[in-house]
Amino acid sequence: NQIYSHRIAIETASSADLGPAITGNVIYDNSETAIRLGVGTDNALLASNTIYALQGDGIQLPQESSHNVTIKDNVLYIRSGIAIHAESGRHFDFASDYNLIYTSEASAIGSWAGVTYTDHAAWYYQLGLDRNSLAGTSSSFDPQFQDVAGPDGLLGYSELGMEPPIIVDDGDLG
């Protein structure tokens, strides 16, 4: 899926048994967050997603507690938000690893229970998260997307300059 230009691109509802698997998405140009896990979202897998956020957060965990949430193998490009945002600290069996997280000076790798982490080492040593991930502001972590805006120079989709469709009908009923 390609999801863009929303306030929130993907938001889950509560899940007690088999949680959501949010995988293989390209998410960009959202104003608040790319992925938000709703209250009571348990057993969630967020894997192999590409998130390009010029504003807002990459992934938001619910304000209430969650259980067994795994974030792995994602590419997060965050310009002025937080890559992984956990407002409360009440997330049990939470794992995040093998991600590529590129942040600017105006953004952060993570926030956990009100503490913001801009440094990968602190995020790992304080919380034990993203041990094998590459994360930070260094250009070596920049995923170097090829022409993000596309050939028209616009991020996302625009109808500007598009002609109306031409309908070809030979007059038959069938």
Protein model, in words:
The chain has one helix and 18 strands. The protein has 174 residues and is mainly beta. The radius of gyration is 19 Å and the shape is globular.
What's a concise summary of this model?
By secondary structure, this protein is mainly β.
Overall average residue pLDDT: 87
Distance between the termini: 34 Å
- In percent terms, what proportion of residues is strand? 35-45%
| Residue windows where pLDDT falls under 50 for at least 5 positions | none
Structural class, from secondary structure content? mainly beta
Strand order in the largest sheet: 1-4-7-11-15-18
Radius of gyration: 19 Å
Order of helices and strands: EEEEEEEEEEEEEEEEEHE
Question: Helices and strands in order, then pairings?
Answer:
Elements lengths: L1 E3 L3 E4 L9 E3 L2 E3 L4 E4 L7 E4 L2 E4 L3 E5 L4 E2 L1 E4 L2 E4 L3 E5 L4 E2 L2 E3 L2 E4 L4 E5 L2 E3 L2 H8 L6 E3 L38
Parallel strand pairs: 1-4, 2-5, 3-6, 4-7, 5-8, 6-10, 7-11, 8-12, 9-13, 10-14, 11-15, 12-16, 15-18
Antiparallel strand pairs: 16-17
What features would you highlight for this structure?
174 residues; mainly beta; 1 helix; single chain; six-stranded parallel β-sheet; globular; six-stranded mixed β-sheet
